[in-house]
Structures are given as C-alpha cells and as structure tokens.
Amino acid sequence: MANLGPAPKAQFFTADGQPLVGGKVYTYAAGTATPLATYTSASGTSFNTNPIILDGRGECSLWFSPASSYKIKLTDSNDVEIYVVDNVTSSGYVSGGSIVNSSIANGTISTATLTGNTITGGTIDGAVIGSVTPTTATFTTFSGAWAALPAGTKMLFVQTAAPTGWTKLTTDDNKALRIVSGTAGTGGSVAFTTAFSSQAITGTVDGHVLTAAEIPSHSHSYTAAGGVIGVAAGTSYNVMWSPGGSTTGATGSGAAHTHGLTASSLNLAVQYVDAIIAVKV
C-alpha cells in the first residue's frame, strides 16, 4: 500500500502559465487583515517572511499552523493583486502517533479499528477502548484548539486530578455552582453537604390574645340567693319583691398563649456529582 505525498513546494504562475518569479504571498488570519505567520518547514520553528517572495521558479516553502485558518493574497512583484483566497487550512497529517486536522472513518490505526464514531481494540493514554474493563479513558493532554486556551483559563473537570498543563484549585470546596449573567463571584455561608442534608423541623408558633369575637359562644349558669316574703291577708304592699342581680366569678388574665409545632424531617440529601476547578498554566 502506498500513499500520495504532499507537494514538496508551493508554486505559483502568471496568467499565461509562466512561473510567477518575484511574486509575493501575503498570509493573514482568516477573515481579517491581521498578518499570520507561516513556516519554512514541518517543524514549525522557522517563520517565513510576510510577504513571502517567490524564487526563480515561482516557488516557496509554505507550511501552515494546523490550528489556524488563513487568508492568502497573491500579488506580482509590483504588488498588483492577482487573487485572494480566504479560510485556507492545512491538510491533515499523522506525526508521532497524533492525528492532526484529519477525519478517519472505517479504517484501522495500529491495532485500533475505527467504524463510524466507534473505536475498538485501541488505547488512549494506556486505557483500552472497547473492552469491558476499563470502560472509560482519562485524557491527560490536550492538543489543537485546547492548546490555544490562554493561561489563567479556569474550567470544570469531573475527575480528581487536574490534566497535564493545568493546576487544581482548592480554594473553593464543598460549594454549589451558581450560574449568573453578571459578575462572577462567591457567596453564602453554609457548606453544600450541611445545607443539603436531612433537616428536622421543630418550634412554636407566635402567641395571640383572643378577642371577644374569637371566643366561642357559651353561657355560664348560677344559682340566685334563696328567700321568702310572706304577705298577710288583707294587707297591701307597694313593693312586693325586687331581688338584686348576680354574676358568676371571674378567672384568667388575658395573656397570650403559644402552640407547639412538630413535623417530619425534610430529606434534602440531593444526589450530586463532584467536579474540580483547574486553571491552565
């Protein structure tokens, strides 16, 4: 089996098919006028000039950053524009076992078989993919767009240790995560596992002095004082008998009273997933 090799040199021509000797290749970040460097070799350690001046064959060594998209402007030696092409990316390649900017489907790399989005028989960081045990793999390094994240970037990771190139932050511990639309910060005073645990409810309600309208309608009985007034025959009296009124005895002071309160405990022990915060160094 053989593979088609890439063009060893980039070559450009005039409209009549002649090498564009002394022509210029300007390179920018895609969609912008911001210059973006290219390289003289695959090592990516030596930069081209910008613009690149084409040699006597209209050629140059032109290597792109695999993580970047470019805008290419080609001019003649007098800076007369020939064309502009935007959103140019490098072709994928395999280097040191890493697949860069490539898509692989229904193929085999070493002993790992790729079918659609499924990988079997291979390993990632020493963890076997597609086997019964273990069933997951832990990624300890990042490449491509991950590598371009600026230092100081903070992210959540559902694992105990920070990835390579990151430092685990331990300032915040046993706290909930709150999403805000404004300035990010911290707050609160109760630890997560303390707040979200089984909570007993006990106490009393407020006292209240009953008004007359709030007292149930009721009556009190009493016995009047006894006595008999005799009237002799033929004798008249202006007043026969007018007994005085009587009341029952009183008790109580009108003070407020309370009611006890007992309720079942509330189980707030919600399920959770632990995560860590790590900062890119």
Q: What structural category arises from helix and sheet content?
A: mainly beta
Which shape, going by the Cα principal axes? rod-shaped
Number of DSSP strands?
A: 18
Count of DSSP H/I helices = 1
Profile the largest sheet: 4 strands, antiparallel
Q: Helix and strand succession?
A: EEEEEEEEEEEEEEEHEEE
Task: Note poorly predicted spans.
Answer: none
Instruction: Count the domains.
Output: 3
Average pLDDT level: 79
> What's the end-to-end separation, in Å?
43 Å
Name given to the CATH architecture of the largest domain: Beta Complex
CATH class of the largest domain: Mainly Beta
CATH superfamily of the largest domain: Phage P22 tailspike-like, N-terminal domain
- Which range best describes the helical content: under 10%, 10-25%, 25-40%, 40-55%, 55-70% or over 70%? under 10%
Radius of gyration from CA coordinates: 46 Å
The percent range for strand residues is: 25-35%
- The order of strands across the largest sheet is 3-2-5-6
CATH topology of the largest domain: Tailspike Protein, Chain
Overview of the molecule:
This protein is mainly β and 281 residues long. It has 3 domains: 7-94, Phage P22 tailspike-like, N-terminal domain (Tailspike Protein, Chain, Beta Complex); 103-138, no CATH class; 144-205 and 262-281, no CATH class. The chain contains 1 helix and 18 strands. The protein has one helix spanning 192-195, and strands at residues 10-11, 24-29, 52-53, 59-60, 70-75, 81-88, 93-95, 98-100, 107-109, 112-115, 118-120, 123-124, 127-128, 154-157, 166-169, 198-204, 260-267, 276-280. The strands form 7 sheets. The protein has a 4-stranded antiparallel sheet with strand order 3-2-5-6, with no helix packed on it. Strands 9-10-11 form a 3-stranded antiparallel sheet, with no helix packed on it. The chain has a 3-stranded antiparallel sheet with strand order 14-18-15, with no helix packed on it. The longest helix is centred in the C-terminal third of the chain and has 4 residues, at 192-195. The two termini are 43 Å apart. The model has no long low-confidence stretch (mean pLDDT 79).
